[in-house]
Specification:
The protein folds into three domains: about 100 residues, Rossmann fold, CATH 3.40.50.20; about 70 residues, 2-Layer Sandwich (Dna Ligase, domain 1); about 240 residues, ATP-grasp fold, B domain (D-amino Acid Aminotransferase, Chain A, domain 1, 2-Layer Sandwich). The chain is about 35% helix and about 25% strand. Bound molecules: adenosine-5'-diphosphate (2 copies) and magnesium ion (MG).
């Protein structure tokens, strides 16, 4: 078993990983930027090393400093969390070359799947239905226009290196497509330093349903069911739940099987998520695979009782999965709300500041994953997600009741959050009646401008 894990991340996911290690008797090393001297992950870990100034480029993305910290502390492994270097194939490769276990898949697979256009082609070969679109990357605007004409509008242009909901635009007409072509290329260049783009049919009114998988280094793979992440703002997830309220049992079964077969086929290891769009006819299409732990992994943990972070560590230690597919039981319903520090009156612009008073909800079936505390100053340099509230109820209705109660109980004094917006979603009749898809927030709320 791994003995000392360096956590190359910050915030709630760093704390989440430290806790899992502590439960397993594994020592932990935190890395922190100058802005995170007083952060919770810095104080909770057994050891902590400052790796640079506040900007991510100089700290949490600074491979050299992070690897030096690992060597200095004698860490035998690195857990990358999500975001930052978690999907950086080069980082995973260097870790391996240095004899440090990267807790995730092989760098070659990160590389293969991180390129979304290439990932689609790989999955198609592995027998997975994919969103119809360009065979690989687009070479010219002319090609995009011709393809869109054949496939019929609306279409979507997507950055192949994209993530976090950025570098994606829908076009309903050739005029829009012409404009979007340049815009998406520009956005992709700035955000991902890679302006390769591809085209997809825009699936109208779909659900986003993803399958969590676990695969060990001995050829065994299982899935842990699905998560419905259709409640999104600007293609970014806001609220997630499992089970999905639209999947028919046979669709669920098929999606799970397709996902497991695909990861076996490509030789994927560790935890991963295959994201699909599901349309009205219960047809499902592969969209992308995330080769890391996902923000919304706790909902899966609540209904399966499996600790995904511990499984990641066990897999990276070379252990075999101790579960077969038939051992996985799903109990009740779980939902997660992402609490962000953003200002609702300023179009949800991220904000920072000092938390003057804090009350976190608790109680039966309520879990809060966070790294904030009373008196903590949120630095402006990083992601605006400050807490995840996760509930577990006997069914969807009970989960919603618990979530409403929990979010209403939350007090974060001194900064603005999206908590009231979450409460509005939970009160929305269409959300409650299962009449929603990925366009829900844009349709129901006037905040998408
Ligand atoms: P997940 O797929 O795990 O639900 P998201 O798709 O919301 O997570 O985001 C993917 C990753 O990108 C996350 O790890 C998150 O930390 C990161 N991310 C999301 N939004 C941004 C952003 N605006 N800037 C930088 N990173 C982001
Ligand atoms: P990211 O890497 O940023 O997570 P994804 O490819 O997963 O990007 O897409 C993010 C979201 O955008 C999806 O969850 C979905 O809501 C929407 N989306 C992506 N592709 C399509 C498509 N072809 N048709 C309709 N919606 C899409
Ligand atoms: Mg995605």
């Amino acid at each position: 078993m791994l003995k000392k894990v360096l956590i190359a991340n910050r915030g709630e996911i760093a704390v989440r990983i430290i806790r899992a290690c502590r439960e397993m008797g594994i020592r932990t090393v935190a890395i922190y930027s100058e802005a995170d001297k007083n952060a919770l992950h810095t104080t909770l870990a057994d050891e902590a090393i400052c790796i640079g100034p506040a900007p991510s480029q100089k700290s949490y993305l600074n491979m050299k400093a992070i690897l030096e910290a690992a060597c200095l502390t004698g860490a035998d492994s690195i857990h990358p969390g999500f975001g930052f270097l978690s999907e950086n194939a080069n980082f995973a490769k260097i870790c391996k070359e240095m004899g440090i276990k990267f807790i995730g898949p092989e760098s070659t697979l990160i590389d293969l799947l991180g390129n979304k256009s290439q990932a689609k082609q790989t999955m198609k070969k592995a027998g997975v239905p994919v969103v119809p679109g360009s065979e690989g990357l687009l070479n010219s605007k002319k090609q995009a226009l011709e393809l869109a004409e054949q496939m019929k509008y609306p279409v979507m242009l997507k950055a192949s290196a994209g993530g976090g909901g950025r570098g994606i635009r829908v076009a309903y007409t050739p005029e829009e497509l012409e404009k979007d072509y340049d815009l998406v290329k520009q956005e992709a260049k700035i955000a991902f330093n890679d302006d390769s783009i591809y085209l997809e049919k825009f699936i109208e009114n779909p659900r986003h349903v993803e399958i969590q998988i676990l695969a060990d280094e001995h050829g065994n793979a299982i899935h842990l069911g699905e998560r419905d992440c259709s409640i999104q703002r600007r293609n970014q997830k806001v609220l997630e739940e499992t089970p999905s309220s639209i999947l028919k049992p046979e669709t669920r079964k098929k999606m799970g099987e397709v996902a497991v077969n695909a990861v076996k086929e490509i030789g994927y290891t560790n935890a991963g998520t295959i994201e699909f769009l599901v349309d009205k006819n219960q047809d499902f299409y592969f969209m992308e695979m995330n080769t890391r732990v996902q923000v919304e992994h706790p909902v899966t943990e609540m209904v399966t009782g499996i600790d995904i972070i511990k499984e990641q560590i066990k897999i990276a230690s070379g252990e075999k999965l101790t579960y077969q597919q038939e051992d996985i039981c799903f109990t009740g319903h779980s939902m997660e709300a992402r609490i962000n520090c953003e200002n609702p009156s300023k179009n949800f612009m991220p904000c920072a500041g000092t938390i003057k008073g804090l009350h976190l909800p608790g109680g039966n079936g309520i879990r809060v994953d966070t790294a904030i505390y009373s008196g903590y100053t949120i630095p402006p340099n990083y992601d605006s997600m400050i807490a995840k509230i996760i509930v577990h109820g006997k069914d969807r209705q009970e989960s919603i009741q618990k979530m409403k109660s929990a979010v209403a109980e939350l007090v974060v004094d001194g900064i603005q959050t999206n908590a009231d917006f979450i409460l509005e979603i939970l009160d929305n009749a269409n959300f409650l009646n299962n009449h929603y898809d990925t366009s829900f927030i844009a349709k129901e709320f006037d905040i998408n401008k």
